[in-house]
UniProtKB/TrEMBL annotation, chain A:
<dbReference type="Pfam" id="PF00108">
    <property type="entry name" value="Thiolase_N"/>
</dbReference>
<dbReference type="InterPro" id="IPR016039">
    <property type="entry name" value="Thiolase-like"/>
</dbReference>
<dbReference type="InterPro" id="IPR002155">
    <property type="entry name" value="Thiolase"/>
</dbReference>
<dbReference type="InterPro" id="IPR020617">
    <property type="entry name" value="Thiolase_C"/>
</dbReference>
<dbReference type="InterPro" id="IPR050215">
    <property type="entry name" value="Thiolase-like_sf_Thiolase"/>
</dbReference>
<dbReference type="InterPro" id="IPR020616">
    <property type="entry name" value="Thiolase_N"/>
</dbReference>
<feature type="domain" description="Thiolase C-terminal">
    <location>
        <begin position="275"/>
        <end position="397"/>
    </location>
</feature>
<keyword id="KW-0808">Transferase</keyword>
<feature type="domain" description="Thiolase N-terminal">
    <location>
        <begin position="8"/>
        <end position="266"/>
    </location>
</feature>
<protein>
    <submittedName>
        <fullName>Thiolase family protein</fullName>
    </submittedName>
</protein>
<comment type="similarity">
    <text>Belongs to the thiolase-like superfamily. Thiolase family.</text>
</comment>
<dbReference type="Pfam" id="PF02803">
    <property type="entry name" value="Thiolase_C"/>
</dbReference>
<keyword id="KW-0012">Acyltransferase</keyword>
<dbReference type="InterPro" id="IPR020613">
    <property type="entry name" value="Thiolase_CS"/>
</dbReference>
Length: 408, 710
C-alpha cells in the first residue's frame, strides 16, 4: 500500500497556572488528574469545531506515574474530562520532556496516518509526587560506574555543566534569571500568558497556608517580578559549596498541567481548526547523564540536520529554563548572546515554574503566540534538557510566514 | 452587624452543645477576565462527604460572622461580589435535625426560625451581588441559603436537591416558602415544596434545578466551580445578562395553591398540618412581600416544631435512616456464611418475584423448582420477561441482561437444583403439612450448611422446622407485596434457629436492600398481626351494624395510604380471611372471623367496591351479602374502638417480646404497610392521642422520643 507522510500541525495549547509544590502551594489539596482534566476540557471548549468523537488518542505524560498520576492517565483523564468512551488514551514518560514527547510521538503517528487528531499534554504535581518518589535505581549504575552519582540529582548536573563551560559564571546565570523574571512580568502585563491559562478551583483546609475554603488559581504562583541581582547574589548554592546553582537561577518545584491539540494539517483545515504551528522536525539525543543540561545541543544538531536548516534559520527559541546554565550553555555553543531577543521572549521556567512532564507544551503554546505576533519569523524551536542525560528539540514553521509550506 | 442576631444564636447554641458546627470560610480570589476581587464563602463542617454539612445555631453564627466580613468589604468597595459554595460533593443539607429534636419551648423554636432568616437574608442586601454555587447535595436550609442570593448556578453532577421539610412535618422556614414561588412561580414551587416532599421525598437532579429556573446556569461537574466563577465574572462585568421569565401572579398562582391542596389531601387527608401551612405561606407570597412571608415561616416553623406530627416525622425518619441499618437483636454479622447460590421452591408468582429479586441483588445462580415442567418453565419465563422489561427501560444493559438470564434456571429434580445451594427459600402453599414436607425433601438433598428460609406470612417457623434433622438452620423470611417495592423483611427466629443462620439471613437481607426487622416466631409476626387486628375491628363494627362508609371514614384522619377495605382488596379477601382464621385460632379472645367477610370470599368476590363511576362504591352484590346488626356507631366511636384494639395488640406484642422495642413495630408499619411518617408508624400517635394511656396505662415511648420533650 502506498503511503504518504502527512503534515502535522499544532492546533492549540493551554495550561493550568503553575503552582509552587508544597504545603503552602495553591494546588496542595488538588489532585494531579484533576489538573490535566481541566486543561483538556478548556482545550475542547476553546475549539468547539473539534468533534470530541474524532479525537484518536489522548497521550498524557507524567514522570511519577503512581497514585493520581498513575492508572494510565491518558485513558482515565479522557474519561474524567467527558470524552466519548471510544477515545483511547495512554501515558508517556520522558521525565521533563514528557509532554514534548507526547506531542512528537502522536505527531509521528499522525504523519504515518494512524491518527487525524490527538490531545497531547502532561502533568506533574511535584507536591504530591516529589522527585525521586518510589525510584529504585539498579545498583549496577554505581557498582559498574555506568553513571556518576551526581546524575540523579539535577542540581548537581547543573553544577557539572558550569564546570564544562567555565565561562558561564554564577553572575551570568543570575543576570539571565533576572531577565527571565522581567520578561515574564512584561508578558503578563501585556496579557500574553493569561490567554492560554485555564482557571482552576483550589481548595485549602490548612489555615497555616492562608485563607481556607475554595479559591481560584488564575495566575502562575512561582513568579517573582522585581527580582534583582542583589536578591539573587546572596542565595545559597545547595548542590555544591561555593557552587553557582541557586533557587534563584533555576526553576523551582512545581505543580501544573498542559494540553495541546495536534492534528494532521488536512484534518485541521477540513474541520476549520486553527493552525498555529507546522511541525518541521524533532529529535532526541543522549549525553552523559551527569551533564544532562548539555542535551539540547546534540538534539538540536540532529533536528536541524533532518530539516536541512542551520541555527541561523531559527528566528525564535523557546528553551526550557530548568537551569539558567543550561540555556546559557546552549547559547554559548551556538554563539548566541545571553540576552538575544529571539530567545524566550516571554521569559521561562525560572519565572513560571517547571512542573516536569508538563513543560514541553508550555514552550509550544508560547512559541505559537510569538509566531502569531511575528509573521516575519519562519522557523522556531522548542528545546529542553531531560533527566538521565537527554535532550529534546522540536523545530516548527510559522504558518503565518509568507513562504510557509514552500521549499526552504 | 445585628447584635440581636448574635445574641439569638448564642442562646440557641447553648441549648445544643453537641452540634456538628459548620464553618463558613471566607477566601478571596481574583475573578477571571479581570472582573475584580471576589469573596467566596465555603460551607464546610470539616468532615468528608459521608457527614454532610448542616446548619445549627453555631453554624448560623459562623455564617453570620462571615457575612459581617464580606458585608463590610462590599460596602468599602474592596470586593465586587460574594459567592457561597460547599465542600466537595455537598452544598449543605439544611437544619441539623438533632437540634430541632431537643427544642422544648415555643420561643426557642421561634429563635431558630428567626436566626436562619436573619442570617440568610443578609445575602440579599449586600452592596454587591451574591451568588450561590450549588456544587453538590442541597436540601432544606441548604437550598434556602442559595435562594436568598442574587444568582445561582448548579452542577450537572448534583445528585439530590430538595425542600424536604413537608416530608418531615415542617415548612421550608428559612425563606423557601416565600422566595421559591417568587423566583419560579407558584406552580413549580408547589411541585418542589409539596409534591416532591409528599412523594417519598423525591429529589431533583442538577439539570432539573436549572430547568425549573431555580438556578440561572448549569455547568458540568468536572469544572463546575471554575465555570461558575467565569460566569460570575461575565455577569458582573455586564457581558452577560440573566433573564428570568415573568411570574404569573394571577389566577395561575391560586390554581397552583389549589393543586397543592389536592396533592396534600390525597397524601395525608388533612391528617398532617405541614403541607397546609406551607401552602398558606405560598398563597400569601403572591403579593411579593417577602418579609411578611418570612414572619409567617417563623410562626409556622415554631408551631410545627412544638407539634407532635413533626416529632413523629423526625422519629420515623431516624427509624428508616438509622435503626433500619442496624437491626435490633441481629447477631454478629461475622457469623454469616457466604451465599453463592440460591434455591427457590415453587415457581408461582410469589416464588418468581423472589427469584428475580435474589437474582438482581445477589447476582448468583438462582434455581427454581416446582412439581411439573410447565410451572417451572412459566416461572423462569416470568423472570426472563421481567429482565427484558428492565432492558427496555435501560435499567440494565444487554450484557447485564445476558448475565442475569444465564444465572436463572429451573429444574424438576430438587437434588439436581439444590445440591450446591447455600440459601433455599420456599414460597409454596400456606399449609403447615405442605411446608414440612417441602423442607424434608429439601433437607435430604441440600448441603448441610444451607439455610432453609420460609416466606410464610402466618405459620409457625418452629413448627415448620420441628421435623427436620437440622432445625437450627430454618429462618422465617417474610416479604411484603409488592416484593420489589416495599422495603420490609420480617426475619423470624424459630425456637431452634442458631446465630449463624440468623446472621446469614440478615446478611442476605442487606444485599437484597431490604429493611430487616428481627421478629419472634409468633402468629402472623408484626405487620399482619396489627393490620388484621385493625381490619378485624373495622369488620366487627360493620358486622355489628355501622354502615361501611362510616367505618371507612372513621379512620381517614389517620392519613393511611388507603382505606381499610381498599387494602383488603389489595391483599385479597381470601388471604385476609385466612390470616384472620389463623390469628383467631391463636388468640380467639381478640381476633374474630367475620361471617360477612367469609360470605364475600365464598361468593368469589375480589373486593367490596366497584369502580364503575371512577370512585369506589359499595358493590351492590356485596351489599346484598352483608348481614349487619343494629348497633350503629359514630365515626369517633369507631375510631376509638379501632385505635384501642391496635394499642392493646401492640402492648401485648411487646409483652410477648415479638420485637425488641416499640420502635421496631413502627419501623415495620412504615416500611411494610406504608403507614405515614406523621404517625411515626403508630405508637407516637397512640401516645399523643392518649390511647396508650387509656388502654395500657402507660405510653409506648418516653416523652421526647417522638414528641416534644417535657
Amino acid at each position: 500500500m502506498p503511503r504518504t507522510v502527512r503534515d502535522v500541525v499544532f492546533v492549540d495549547g493551554v495550561r493550568t497556572p503553575f503552582g509552587k509544590a508544597g504545603p503552602k502551594g495553591i494546588y496542595h489539596e488538588t489532585r494531579a488528574d484533576d489538573l490535566i482534566v481541566k486543561a483538556i476540557r478548556e482545550l475542547l471548549r476553546r475549539n468547539p469545531a473539534l468533534d470530541p468523537a474524532k479525537i484518536d488518542e489522548v497521550a498524557i505524560a507524567a514522570t511519577t506515574q503512581i497514585g493520581d498520576q498513575g492508572l494510565t492517565l491518558g485513558r482515565t483523564a479522557g474519561i474524567l474530562a467527558g470524552l466519548p468512551q471510544s477515545v483511547p488514551g495512554y501515558s508517556i514518560d520522558r521525565m521533563c520532556a514528557g509532554a514534548l514527547t507526547a506531542v512528537t510521538t502522536t505527531a509521528g503517528s499522525i504523519a504515518f496516518g494512524a491518527y487525524d487528531a490527538v490531545i497531547a499534554g502532561g502533568v506533574e504535581h511535584m507536591g504530591r509526587h516529589p522527585m525521586g518518589e518510589g525510584v529504585d535505581p539498579n545498583p549496577r549504575f554505581v557498582s559498574e560506574k555506568l553513571v556518576d552519582e551526581s546524575a540523579l540529582f539535577m542540581g548537581m548536573t547543573a553544577e557539572n555543566l558550569h564546570d564544562r563551560y567555565p565561562s558561564i559564571t554564577k553572575q551570568r546565570a543570575d543576570e539571565y534569571a533576572v531577565r527571565s523574571q522581567e520578561k515574564a512580568a512584561k508578558a503578563y502585563a501585556n496579557g500574553k500568558i493569561q490567554q492560554d491559562l485555564v482557571p482552576v478551583s483550589v481548595r485549602r483546609t490548612n489555615e497555616e497556608a492562608g485563607e481556607t475554603g475554595w479559591g481560584l488559581a488564575t495566575a502562575d504562583e512561582p513568579m517573582r517580578p522585581g527580582t534583582t541581582l542583589e536578591n539573587l547574589s546572596g542565595l545559597k548554592t545547595p548542590f555544591r559549596t561555593h557552587g553557582r546553582v541557586t533557587a534563584g537561577n533555576a526553576a523551582g518545584l512545581n505543580d501544573g498541567a498542559t494540553a495541546s491539540i495536534i492534528a494532521s494539517e488536512d484534518f485541521a483545515r477540513e474541520n476549520n481548526l486553527p493552525v498555529k504551528m507546522r511541525l518541521v522536525s524533532y529529535s532526541f539525543a543522549g549525553v552523559e547523564p551527569e551533564v544532562m543540561g548539555y542535551g539540547p545541543i546534540p538534539a538540536t544538531e540532529k533536528a536541524l540536520a533532518q530539516a536541512g536548516l542551520s541555527i541561523s534559520d531559527i528566528g525564535l527559541f523557546e528553551i526550557n529554563e530548568a537551569f539558567a546554565v543550561q540555556v546559557l550553555a546552549f547559547l554559548e555553543h551556538y554563539g548566541i548572546a545571553d540576552d538575544d531577543a529571539r530567545v524566550n521572549q516571554y521569559g521561562g521556567a525560572i519565572a513560571y515554574g517547571h512542573p516536569l512532564a508538563s513543560s514541553g507544551v508550555r514552550l509550544m503554546t508560547q512559541l505559537a503566540r510569538q509566531f502569531e505576533e511575528q509573521p516575519d519569523v519562519r522557523y522556531g524551536l522548542t528545546t529542553m534538557c531531560v533527566g538521565f542525560g537527554m535532550g529534546a528539540t522540536v523545530i516548527w514553521e510559522n504558518p503565518n510566514h509568507k513562504d510557509a509550506g514552500g521549499d526552504k | 452587624m445585628s447584635s440581636s442576631t448574635t445574641e439569638l444564636l448564642k442562646g440557641a447554641a447553648e441549648l445544643f452543645p453537641d452540634e456538628v458546627v459548620t464553618q463558613a470560610h471566607v477566601r478571596h480570589l481574583d475573578l477571571p477576565a479581570g472582573a475584580g476581587r471576589f469573596a467566596l464563602i465555603t460551607l464546610d463542617n470539616g468532615f468528608d462527604h459521608t457527614k454532610p454539612t448542616t446548619f445549627g445555631p453555631g453554624s448560623l453564627a459562623n455564617l453570620n460572622a462571615a457575612i459581617d466580613q464580606v458585608e463590610k468589604e462590599a460596602a468599602e468597595g474592596t470586593i465586587v461580589g460574594v459567592g457561597v459554595t460547599g465542600k466537595p460533593f455537598i452544598f449543605a443539607v439544611g437544619a441539623d435535625l438533632k437540634g430541632v429534636e431537643i427544642l422544648g419551648r415555643h420561643e426557642d423554636a421561634l429563635a431558630i426560625g428567626k436566626g436562619g432568616h436573619e442570617v440568610f437574608k443578609r445575602l440579599a442586601t449586600l452592596a454587591v451581588p451574591s451568588f450561590a454555587y450549588y456544587n453538590g447535595a442541597a436540601m432544606g436550609g441548604g437550598v434556602e441559603v442559595g435562594l436568598h442570593c442574587s444568582y445561582r448556578t448548579v452542577s450537572k453532577a448534583l445528585p439530590a436537591f430538595s425542600l424536604p421539610e413537608v416530608f418531615l412535618g415542617l415548612v421550608p422556614g428559612w425563606g423557601g416558602c416565600a422566595l421559591l414561588p417568587n423566583l419560579i412561580g407558584a406552580d413549580k414551587a408547589v411541585s418542589v415544596i409539596i409534591e416532591n416532599s409528599l412523594n417519598q421525598n423525591r429529589q431533583l437532579k442538577g439539570k432539573q434545578v436549572f430547568e425549573l429556573g431555580i438556578a440561572d446556569a448549569l455547568f458540568e461537574g468536572a469544572d463546575f466551580l471554575e465555570q461558575s466563577l467565569i460566569w460570575t465574572a461575565s455577569v458582573l462585568n455586564g457581558s452577560l445578562t440573566v433573564d428570568r421569565p415573568e411570574i404569573d401572579r394571577g389566577e395561575a398562582w391560586d390554581a397552583a395553591v389549589a393543586r397543592g391542596r389536592g396533592i396534600a389531601d390525597s397524601k395525608v387527608h388533612g391528617a398532617a398540618p405541614a403541607a397546609y401551612r406551607a401552602l398558606e405561606i405560598i398563597e400569601a407570597a403572591k403579593d411579593g412581600d417577602l418579609q411578611k412571608g418570612f414572619d409567617a415561616e417563623d410562626k409556622a416553623l415554631a408551631d410545627l416544631i412544638m407539634g407532635g406530627e413533626l416529632r413523629s416525622g423526625i422519629y420515623a425518619f431516624n427509624l428508616v435512616q438509622k435503626r433500619a441499618k442496624r437491626p435490633a437483636g441481629a447477631p454478629d454479622k461475622n457469623l454469616a456464611r457466604p451465599v453463592t447460590k440460591v434455591g427457590v421452591v415453587g415457581a408461582g408468582l410469589m416464588a418468581s418475584q423472589l427469584a428475580l429479586l435474589f437474582l438482581r441483588r445477589l447476582e448468583v445462580p438462582v434455581v427454581l423448582t416446582d412439581i411439573d415442567q410447565a410451572r417451572v418453565d412459566k416461572g423462569v419465563g416470568y423472570v426472563h420477561e421481567e429482565i427484558d422489561k428492565l432492558l427496555l427501560k435501560g435499567r440494565v444493559n444487554q450484557d447485564k441482561a445476558n448475565r442475569l438470564k444465564g444465572l436463572v434456571s429451573g429444574v424438576l429434580d430438587k437434588a439436581e437444583g439444590f445440591s450446591d445451594a447455600d440459601f433455599i427459600i420456599e414460597a409454596v402453599f400456606e399449609e403447615i403439612g405442605v411446608k414440612q414436607q417441602v423442607f424434608a425433601e429439601v433437607e435430604a438433598v441440600a448441603p448441610a450448611h444451607a439455610i432453609l428460609a420460609t416466606n410464610t406470612s402466618s405459620l409457625s417457623v418452629s413448627e415448620m422446622a420441628s421435623k427436620l434433622k437440622h432445625p437450627e438452620r430454618v429462618v422465617g423470611f417474610h416479604f411484603f407485596n409488592p416484593v420489589a417495592i416495599l422495603p420490609l423483611l420480617e426475619i423470624v427466629r424459630g425456637e431452634q434457629t442458631d446465630d449463624a443462620s440468623l446472621a446469614t439471613a440478615f446478611g442476605v437481607a442487606k444485599k437484597l436492600k431490604k429493611t430487616a426487622v428481627l421478629v419472634k416466631d409468633a402468629p402472623a409476626f408484626v405487620v399482619n398481626r396489627i393490620l388484621t387486628r385493625f381490619m378485624g375491628e373495622i369488620q366487627n363494627v360493620i358486622d355489628e351494624g355501622t354502615p361501611v362508609a362510616v367505618a371507612e371514614k372513621a379512620v381517614e384522619p389517620l392519613g393511611l395510604p388507603m382505606s381499610p377495605l381498599v387494602l383488603l382488596e389489595l391483599v385479597g379477601p381470601a388471604i385476609g380471611l385466612h390470616v384472620s382464621e389463623t390469628l383467631n385460632r391463636a388468640f380467639p379472645e381478640r381476633f374474630t372471623v367475620s361471617p360477612n367477610l367469609a360470605a364475600v370470599v365464598k361468593a368469589g368476590k375480589r373486593g367490596f367496591y366497584v369502580y364503575d363511576s371512577g370512585k369506589p362504591e359499595l358493590d351492590p352484590e356485596v351489599a346484598a351479602l352483608l348481614k349487619q346488626g343494629d348497633s350503629v356507631l359514630t365515626e369517633e366511636q369507631v375510631r376509638d374502638r379501632v385505635l384501642d384494639a391496635v394499642a392493646q395488640e401492640i402492648g401485648l406484642m411487646l409483652d410477648e417480646g415479638v420485637v425488641a422495642e416499640a420502635q421496631d413495630i413502627d419501623l415495620c408499619l412504615i416500611t411494610g404497610a406504608g403507614w405515614p411518617f406523621h404517625l411515626g408508624g403508630i405508637t407516637p400517635y397512640l401516645d399523643r392521642e392518649g390511647v396508650s394511656e387509656r388502654v395500657n396505662g402507660k405510653r409506648f415511648l418516653a416523652p421526647g422520643v417522638a414528641s416534644v420533650p417535657a
